[in-house]
Structure formats: structure tokens, C-alpha cells
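Pipeline run #58 for the internal structure catalog. This entry was flagged by the ingest filter as a single-chain record with no existing model, so it goes straight to prediction. Upstream metadata was stripped on purpose; only the residue string is passed forward. Reviewer on rotation: M.T. Logging verbosity set to normal.
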Amino acid sequence: MKKRILSAALVAAMAVSTIVTVPGVEAAKKPKLSKKKVTLKVGKKKVVKIKNAKKAKISKIKWKSSKKKIVSVKKKSKYSATLTAKKKGKAVVTCTYKKGKKTKKLKCKVIVKANTKSVADASATPEATADGSAAPATASAAADSAAPTQTAADNSAAPAKTDAPAQASAPVKTTAPVKTDAPAKTDAPAKTDAPAKTSAPVAPTAVPTANAGEVNVPYSANGFVNGVAGFDNSTNGFSGRGTAQVATTNGGHFGNGLAVTGRTDTWNGASLDVSSTFEAGEVYLVSGWIKHSAGAPAEVKLSADVDGASWPVIADVENAASGEWTYLEGTFEVPDFSQLSIYFEVPGSATADFVIDDVKIVKTKAASATTQYSFDSLKEVYSDLFGNVGTCVNYNGWKAGKQLQTKSTLDVIKYGYNSITLEDEMKPSSILGGDWNHSTISVAEAKNLGYYIPDNYTETTVPRLNLDTVDKVLEICYSNGLRMRGHNFMWHQQTPTWFFCTGYNGSNVVSEAVMDARMEFYIKTVMKHVMDKEIALSGKAGSIVYAWDVVNEYLHHTNDPASISWVNVYGEQGVTCSYAKKAFEFAYEELKAYNVTDKVTLFYNDYNTYDEVDDLIAFVNYINEGEEAKICGGIGMQAHLDVQYPSVGKFKTALTSFIATGLEVQITELDVTTTAQNQNKTDEDQAAYVKNLMEMIISVQKKTNGITGLTVWGLYDSISWRASDKPLFFSALKTPKVSYQALIDAVKNPSGDWENN
């Protein structure tokens, strides 16, 4: 077989070498994209074209992004599209076209990096929506853009919608400068006989400090001596990642180093397979020196590759000087894995060579089986006030690893909180599937699986729902005494476009009647499945999921006009939105079917709520108008804030107005940025704002008792969807910032200063 292939290749090569011009050869070329890989910075755009499209006579061209919150795609001309970078991360843009009767696809990998330059005219800091997309420039525009206007904390992972000042033009969110307040390194890698450094190392973005009472255990892989690997005699297990090649070289940080050459993309670098030596659930301190030759300051990074599915960042320096040694250090909590590696890269340049040296790995191990925490439990301090005290987590997260599957992380969650919200894994795109990984089943099969099929459902198939992750999370919650917010059913983002199209495919939008039936099928099937699972676990429906975000960010649905979504079926309807009302009716009917209307509350959830108080109240009043009960029973204030916006007084006005409706109010996605738009605020600024804000909220609660939940949107800064702007209250899993103590002091040691702010 090999000989036959080789012969064919030789014949083809000879044919090409002897033919100078052959009519029709160009026409025979297959369509391809002008770029197979694109690297963009947040806020930047790139046009991608289909080469040979006209001669190949292709038709019905469609463009899709696998992660719209990271990169959006919009058709520019018949054979091209514009890619817009929204937030740091990775996505795949797919171009689907018809060639005769066959449907074919072209794909472009997109890497979006943080933008280190601020927008010249940026003055506002709107609230970021934690759903992770880029928030638009005005209060009415989609907060899913890269400004500090809050984008639905539903994200995953995405540029921040910030609760920043609502000005006429919200700036695009820029990358925060390197931390100056990073915790002290616990173990620097310099050898005892190392020569003096010629240049001071650049501080890593985050250097978690080992907990008191822990000891460092040297890494035991071959080539590492007492945890340290140099490259005097070998590559010590490192290999090239992507097209990169590695080899020992003189001129290391001390002695020889490991040269990395032949890079053709930003993620190419030097990788070490640790699958057989790292242990799930353990925490490793990883460090090393790196020097690149990009010619200008560039981002350097130390990361992990977990099963080729998630790439948690261990350490990151955004502006490492060219030609100088930069120190990287950070801790890595190991999730469950099949294959695991750590790797160095220079995402600030796709082709620059670099050298690494003195890589050090030590395992930090608890001194005793009983974990002691040096900080107060948030649930112990706040549960008497609000009942539900939660955080945002994942089961199979791409950025932060498998939080609920990692014992040490789960232990922290149980210690600090009594409630969780899944960041992405209960959103429609996770349950329905994306453009490339969804399927349909017959109605008969769906009924056998326990799906709810409405009487007016006229189609012969339904989407197959993936509820495996939901089941596993419910089991974890039940076993560990945690409750959960269900997030979410109806959102104009992270809902696949095919869900709105005929045959669950293509681009022809269905009628309102068909969409009504689909909506009822989806909402009731998911709720039914969850409540049946609760009954199987605890004997009672409503025992774990105590709230559902039925509709998410409707007041900002115009922030993604390029996508096919609810408005394409039903049209623009303002605050009297009939299809949003139907969503609440369907959800409430399912609560009634299980007799849990007194246990589970249905919420409308949104960002920048303090800028749209009247519209929001009009919207929820319409939802409840003419109903037998308040089917929308709660208002979720996402609260993706910034230290400079909103004022505590402005937030109070919105909060008291919402409580006055008689609905429950929950703060659902709290975080507070400090460095959005390079404003260079400090952890102390964050702490002062947080203390004033929480003292005000506590004061309102004591007078009204209208707040039933507080959820912080993430565990620590580096895994936040707004990581570059340091929005959370921990710098590492067990390393609280001063703002966390401010949260505690707002209850234990109030000052009353908020009344002057």
C-alpha cells in the first residue's frame, strides 16, 4: 500500500513539474479559506475570504462561530466574512457551502488575545455581562462587549459588560496591566549557584502563595533534580508543541537552556507530558524562566493542556521584554484527566523563537487530612441574611479545569458557599448541542426517553438533549449539601441558530406556532428531567434547584444582531414581549405539575439593571399581568460592577425599586473590576467599594427582607471571564484579597461609610 501511494505521489510530482500552463487547472482548484488560523486582539477585526469560490461555482454560503462570545462572524460579501474578536479565548469559525448537491465545510481556528492598549476615547465603564460577550457602547446596547459594562455573567467566559458609568460611548474592555499586588512567590526557582540576574524578572500575573501548614514535595519525573530541570545535557522530557522544535542551546538562564524554534502559530511551544507523574486533586507549583526574540514586548505564558479540551493558565506575563529573561510562576490544581501536559508559549508572537530554563515543579501537599482555611466562610457570614450564598462553577470547564470534579476545589466550594450556578453547562447551547455536534430523534423515541412533547407539536423529530452533565452536577450537589440556580432557558446568545430553523437545520426560520411548541418542549423537558432526578436523589422535587433564570438579558437582545435568534421568529416587541411571557407560563406550568411553586422561583436575569429600572419593572409586570400568580417571581441583578460605577446610591435606588414590586431579588453574578480601561485601581480600591456596597445591601435587607440570594461569579481572578480586570475576591483558590475581608467586615464590622457615597 505504501509503495502504491509513493508511486502515485511521484507521478503527480512529475506531472506538475512538466506542465507549465494547462487550461482549466485553476478552475479545478477546491475552495479554501484565505486563513486557516487567525490571531486577533480583543476589539480587532479580520476579513476572511473563500479562495477559488467563483470558479468552483459554490452557493448558499453560511458562516458560524463556535463561540460567539469569543469571536463573532458577519457576512461581508458573497465570498467573505468579517471576524470580530470579543473576548480572550479560542473558537472555530465554520464556512458551510453547497457544491452541486453536496454540503461542504471550511474551518478557521481563531485565537483571541487580550488587548493591551486602551481605547483612546474610552470614558465609560459599563457593567459587564458575565455571559462573556462584548458589551456595546451604550446602556441599551448589548452588554456582552469588551467594556466594563456587564455582559451576562453567563460566560462564559467574555468581555465585560461593566456596571461602569453609563456614558454615551462605552469603551472596549482592555487587558489589565500586570499585577503589582501578586502574593509572594512561595518557591523561586533560582539555583544556589546561579549567577546574578542581569535584568529583573517581570512579575507574573498571579503567584498564589502556598497555604500555611503545607510542605513542598519535589517533582519526581526523570530529569528533574529536587524538582528543578535544567537543559545542560538533554531536553529533559520536553518536546515541541505544534510545529515547534526543541533542542538544548548555550546561553540559558544558567548554563544551557532549551531553544524553541520553528513556530508557526502563537500556541506552538515547549511541552512536557506529566500524565504519569501528576496526580488528580493535587496542587503543583510550577515555574521557569523564558526569553523570547520577538523584537518587541510580547505576552509569554505557562499553561496546562487537559485532554486537549481545556487549557488552564498557570502563569502569564503580558509585556515581557524581548531578549530578556522573564520569570513565570503559578500553582496548578490538577483536575481528573486522561492526558495532561504543561507547556510554555509566546502567544504575543506567532513565529518568535524563545528559550526556557530552570523549570521547577513541586507538589504542595496538605500537612494533615483536615483542611484548615485562613479565611471566614462566606455562607456562614451571609446565610442568615440571604439564605442562598453561591458561586459560579463548572463541571467540564475549558478555562478553569474540572472544578466540581476536583476534590480540593470542591472542598473550598463546600466550605464557602451553599449554592452554585453553572457558568455555561445549563445554557441552551450546552444541552441542545452546537452547529456540529447536535442530532435529532423521532418524537416516539423522545417520548420513550421521558421528554415532554406538547399536544400542538407538529414536527416528527426533536433535538436530542444532553443532560448527562446536569445529572452529574445534581448528584454532586446532593452528596455535598449544595443547592443550585438553573441558568438559563431563553437567551439570545449561546442558543444554536438551528433551533429556530425548519427541520432543525439550515437558515429558514420557523413560524411562531412551531417555535411556541419547540419552546414548550425544551423548557418543560429540562425542568421535568431535573425534578425527576431530584426525586430519585432526595425523594422531593425542588430539593436542589431552587431558582431558574427563565429569561436572560432580554432588554439587551439587540447586542447580537448577526445571529438567528428569538427576535427573528417573533419580531421586535419591546417590554411587552409575548414569547418571553410564554416562556414563564411554560416553566410555571411545570412547577405546578410537580407542586413546587412554593419552593422554586422563576427569575428574569439581566445586567446594568440600575440603568433600566423602569423598563425592567414594566417588563416583569407584563409577564405577570393577567396570570393566576406572579409567574415571574424574581429579579436577578447580575451586578458585574466596576469600582467607579455604579455609585452605591444608584445601585440602592434600583435595588429598593425592585424589592418594592413584591418580587424576590437576588444578586446573581457579582464581580467588581479594578483595572478596566487601564484605570489602574488597586485591590484596596476594590475593597473600599465592596464594603460600602455590601453595607448598603445589608441595610436594605434588614428593612425589607426582599433579597433571597447572593452569588459571586467565580472562585478567583485568573479563571474569571473578566480575568484581566481582576474582578473577584480571591487571587487564587485559597488566597483571599483584601476585598474578601471587606465582604466579611461589611457584616462583622460595619462602618456606615456607604451613606456618604
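catalog note: The first strand starts at residue 32 and ends at 33.
catalog note: The chain has three domains: 2-113, 214-366, 378-756.
status: ready for reviewer M.T.
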